[in-house]
Amino acid sequence: MTAPLRILYLEDDLTDAELVRAYLDSADIDCEITRVETENAFTASLEEGGFDLILADYTLPSFDGLSALRIARRLCPQLPFLFVSGTLDEEVAIEALKIGATDYVFKTRLSRMVPSVQRALREAGERAELARAEHSLRRSEAYLAEAQRISHTGSFGWDVDSGEVYWSRETFRIFEYDPSIKITLDHVTRRTHPDDLPTLHQAFQRLAGEKTEFELEHRLLMPDGSVKHLHVRGRSNAGESGRTELLGAVSDITDRKRADAELQHALEEIRKLRDILFKENLALREEIAKASMFEEIVGESPVLRSVLARVAKVAPTDSTVLITGETGTGKELVARAIHKRSNRAARAFVTVNCAATPAALIASELFGHEKGAFTGALQRRLGRFELAEGGTLFLDEIGELPPETQIALLRVLQEREFDRLGGSQSIRADVRVIAATNRDLEKSVAAGLFRNDLFYRLNVFPIQTPALRERTDDIPTLIDYFIHRYSRKAGKKIRTIEKQTLELLQAYSWPGNIRELQNVIERSVIVCESDVFSVDPSWITREPAPSDAAAPATHHLPASEEKAEIEAALASTGGRVSGPSGAAALLNMPASTLESKIRSLRINKFRFKNA
To answer: In terms of residue numbers, what domain contains 43?
Structure first.
């Protein structure tokens, strides 16, 4: 429901007022008329507000219409004002219109009242709408100016054809020009840093000839010698008149550039401090290493000291190392010692047992594969080379590597790059390679089982780990070390060793080397019931039979045949893997390698245990 039209009527004749109402009613104009006769009543009503229209007689006993009009313009400038008079001459009417009256109607022609009121209200509505639009525009402009000021971003326009340039107030502030001057492109080039002028001129020429978006950075050299960094973005297009216009925004990014420079400086300081700490850490590690006797490499025999001296020499380099020696001589410990004394010590040490991984999967294990590279490759997988990036990759039992994988490994060593299986992009490899084997690789090369060029790539710095029988002086130290280690784990206190036991252990040839000694000590600690350590002589009196040494290796057999051979060995040893009478000795392979093969081939070794 529409609210009635509220009219303030300055009229001293009630009859005339009723007559005006009658004309409005006849036109179905719902209205409420408040009639006043004096200046005070008229002023009070305007101050109270709520009116939509003012009607006024020109002549009143103590007041005149022009004075009322002036009061209305002062108090309510938006209200439409109509004179309704019988004495208004033309000269006065013109004066009233100049002051701000909307219209005038003679009382002798009240038939004009309705259209005059409707026009007055319509014009008043249009003026109100225009005022609201102007207010909204001014507010938007104020918000835009404040946003530009806060973000240090100004706007600009350039009419390429006329050369006329428009800048927002913030753009003037950025360039430090007086907003009252007429801006030209010369003002831009005058402030631009000399080194950046060629770039700016090229941008002007390109934008003047093509319609495109653009983005660039350049510097300003200010009158006081300071430098500002600007980021400019915009687009060039054809305006409504067909003229080429350039519109864009310019941001002062000096603070950001300064912050970036400070951050880079801070990062450089951090790098320097990190290098200092790294060097200090290396020195500290060297001291710790001396005290810890090369981690778990226990012993002081001349032959062992010779090995450790070679480790100390090669460790700081990136040279490839080939560690050879019998099973159980601690080749992986030597590899770890090299890594921990190298510049790569802070990065990963990754191991791969080449004999324990099926031949069909070794390439994927080393180099990774892409999704769909082969049946079962459901997702991308990173290889050991990628996992060891920046660190060391230890390839144990390198002699078991299939021929096709030997070629891929040779490429890594030569070119320092490789491809994932199913991949099309080469990957750089920053990895140090240490290889180990208990086989005579030179014989494998002669037999065509191992590539000659790969052997020489691996054999840059050879290290031969001595068998335990070659370092008998270290046996008492090793015995004491292992007794202390396993008795502490078992919660036992062993104070002495039987003399007979010590003589027995020193006299034994230890074909399984340190690993066999370690197993014997651990087993003896478990069964020991006093504080005196002893070993059951039956555990170490059996020497490997000639057939053991001649037993064929299983590394080139198909998986099904290899599984059958391992199960047969486990059946003959009652499920025992390690030790002189274990399956590993029968198959002439390290116990750790056999354990890995048992897992990879999913063999249940416990079903071969003797009842």
So the answer is: 5-129
CA distance 70 to 83: 13
Burial 405-423 (b: 16+ CB within 10 A, else e): bbebbbebbeeeebbbbee
In which region does residue 50 sit, left (phi positive, over 0), alpha (psi from -120 to 50) or beta (all else)? Answer: left
Dist CA 507 CA 21 (whole Å):
136
Best CA proximity match to 342, nearest among 322, 313, 306, 305? 313
> Quick check: is 266 in a domain?
no
DSSP structure class, residue 415: H
Integer distance in angstroms from the first to the last C-alpha of the chain? 102
- Residues 310, 455, single domain; the answer is yes
Burial of 454 (0-12, 13-18, 19+ CB in 10 A): buried
Based on the domain organization, do 430 and 307 belong to the same domain?
Answer: yes
Q: And the tokens for 312?
A: 């100390």
pLDDT in tens, 12-34: 888 888 888 888 888 788 888 89
Residues contacting residue 214 through CB under 8 Å, at least 6 positions apart: 203, 206, 207, 232, 233, 234, 235, 236, 248
Return d(Cα 535, Cα 505) in angstroms, integer: 9
User: What pTM value is reported for the model?
Assistant: 0.46
Instruction: Kindly report the CATH number assigned to the domain that includes residue 211.
Output: 3.30.450.20
Q: Verify that 563 and 484 share a domain, yes or no.
A: no
What own/partner pairs with CB < 8 Å and gap ≥ 24 does 600-605 have? Answer: 600/356, 600/357, 600/358, 601/559, 601/562, 601/563, 601/566, 603/563, 603/566, 603/567, 603/570, 605/570, 605/575, 605/577
Residue 266's Cβ-side half-sphere holds a number of Cα atoms within 13 Å equal to 6
CB 349 within 8 A of CB 390: no
In a domain, 237, yes or no: yes
Number of folded domains that form the chain? 5
The letter for the amino acid at 436 is A
Report the CATH number at residue 475. 1.10.8.60
Please give the Cα distance from 108 to 400 (Å, whole number): 124
What phi, psi does 32 have (nearest 5°)?
A: -120, 120
Cβ contacts of 312-318, under 8 Å, gap ≥ 24: 312/341, 314/338, 314/461, 314/463, 315/339, 315/340, 315/341, 315/342, 316/341, 316/342, 316/343, 317/342, 317/461, 318/342, 318/343, 318/432
Do both 301 and 395 map to the same domain? yes
Instruction: Kindly state whether residues 457 and 479 are assigned to the same domain.
Output: no
Give the pLDDT confidence of 52-103 residue by residue, as tens digits.
888 888 888 888 888 888 899 889 888 898 888 877 677 777 788 888 888 8
Establish if 276 belongs to a structural domain. no
